Amino acid sequence: MAAEIQICNLFKKYPDGAEALKGVSLKINKGQFFTLLGPNGAGKSTLVKIMTTLINKDSGKFSIGGLNPEVNPVNIQKIIGVASQDNEIDPIEKVENLLIFQAGLFGLSKPEARKRANELINLFQLSTERNKKASTLSGGNKRRLHCALALVHQPQVLFLDEPTVGMDPVARANFWETITQMNKSEGITVFLTTQYLDEADKHATEMALIVAGEIRYSGTIIDFKKMVNPDGGLSLDDSYLQYIKALTIQASSKN
Ligand code: ADP
Ligand code: MG
């Protein structure tokens, strides 16, 4: 099966010298629920921003749904949705209007845009926020709005960069119910970054671990757990901690 997302040897250095990606390669198949894990500053958001055409890479290649961003970034933007912590939304516009406007940008007619906005308001349980200004929403509700905005055009691939930060437990559970249902029934490919490893463990099947701009593991979550502890029985959280600890010990013994 052709990979939905192909990433080959991506490098990115920021102007101040931070080497965020040092030759990242990954393959993510269509319909997969994939999670990219790694410590703060490892390069996760940089990779998401490059793939969603928000920033440029220095070298390397990638494609999404067989489309090459260098040929036509707009075609990629049409098939992806992205929700990230630093998504910019107009703070003074009302929730419903923002969704209608975003749907219009993707070419939906006014009645279609209203219908889609309504569907997403219901899906993400934002009906009491419908007429509130975006700037007045709580952190968790803002995150839900980001996700709703990311989905207006029914993308094939959804990028979620730490989507559940600030959500209360019930909101988190509802959020994951919505996303997993889209992944299962509509076959939407999910690319998730999170620091909540219980979420990754519960919902994702494939993962990669990035540390200081380099991929240290990519494969199934089950195999990662087996690699760290062949006897089994460890959660993803414990496996991750054990693996990162071993890397730190290795690095300090080299110095
Ligand atoms: P993560 O999302 O895994 O926490 P990031 O991709 O945000 O990591 O950051 C990777 C590295 O790139 C870090 O060293 C970070 O400080 C640096 N970095 C991220 N964004 C910028 C930026 N806009 N300008 C300069 N350096 C940046
Ligand atoms: Mg990040």
Give a verbal description of the structure.
- This protein is an alpha/beta fold and 255 residues long.
- The protein has a single domain (5-254), classed as Rossmann fold.
- Helices cover 40% and strands 24% of the residues.
- It is built from 9 helices and 9 strands.
- It has helices at 44-51, 73-79, 95-105, 110-123, 139-150, 169-185, 197-203, 221-228, 236-254, and strands at residues 3-13, 19-29, 33-37, 59-64, 80-84, 157-161, 189-193, 206-211, 214-220.
- The strands form 2 sheets. The chain has a 6-stranded mixed sheet, with helices on both faces. Strands 2-1-4 form a 3-stranded antiparallel sheet, covered by helices on one side.
- Helix 3 (95-105) crosses helix 4.
- The chain is globular.
- The mean pLDDT is 93.
- Magnesium ion (MG) binds at residues 44-45, 161.
Please report which band the strand proportion falls in: under 5%, 5-15%, 15-25%, 25-35%, 35-45% or over 45%.
Answer: 15-25%
State the low-pLDDT regions, or none: none
Which hetero ligands occur in this complex?
Answer: adenosine-5'-diphosphate, magnesium ion
Briefly note the structural class of the backbone. alpha/beta
Instruction: Briefly note the CATH topology name.
Output: Rossmann fold
Number of helices: 9
> Within the largest sheet, what's the order of strands?
5-6-7-3-8-9
Q: How would you sum up the global shape?
A: globular
Total beta-strand segments: 9
In angstroms, what is the radius of gyration?
A: 19 Å
**Overall pLDDT:** 93
Question: SSE order in H/E notation?
Answer: EEEHEHEHHHEHEHEEHH
